[in-house]
């Protein structure tokens, strides 16, 4: 069981863990051990996730999310397989926790009179600068 929040717990049966050979430092040992971890979690078909959390996770533009709705996390930060497995699990929890909170709705506001005036003043100043450039320039 992987606790995400008091109401959401992801069972181990929904997590698919695969081990692969990691690149990077480690000498000859790195060529023989599969210390990198690939954790897969099917967001689209998971019965553990509430519908609103699932929708927010699938709506994210995340390159770790496949077209089939599977979240793929690769952990190869450490040389130890166990630490990489824990790292992948922690990252999955953080991603799901990020989707728990609904984003605030933006309240439409109008620009103030002063901000409109500042914008127009800036445009006039820029226009004058460009006008002065064209008068002083000569091809010689």
Quick rundown:
Keywords: Hydrolase. By secondary structure, the protein is an alpha+beta fold.
Name its key features.
3 helices, 140 residues, Double Stranded RNA Binding Domain, three-stranded antiparallel β-sheet, two-stranded antiparallel sheet, 5 strands, 38% helix
For the secondary structure, the number of strands is 5
Uncertain stretches: none
What structural class do you assign from the helix and strand content? alpha+beta
Q: Helical amount among residues, as a percent range?
A: 25-40%
CATH architecture assignment name: 2-Layer Sandwich
Rounded average pLDDT: 87
Rg is 26 Å
The CATH class label is Alpha Beta
Q: What's the tally of helices?
A: 3
Alpha-carbon distance between the termini?
Answer: 79 Å
CATH topology: Double Stranded RNA Binding Domain
Overall geometry: elongated
Task: Please tell me the total number of domains.
Answer: 1
Output the helix-strand order: EEEEHEHH
Largest sheet: 3 strands, antiparallel
Strand order of the largest sheet: 3-4-5
User: What is the percentage of strand-forming residues?
Assistant: 15-25%
Protein name: Aminoacyl-tRNA hydrolase
Domain Prokaryotic-type class I peptide chain release factors: 21-37
Organism: Dyella lipolytica
InterPro entries: Pep_chain_release_fac_I, Pep_chain_release_fac_I_sf
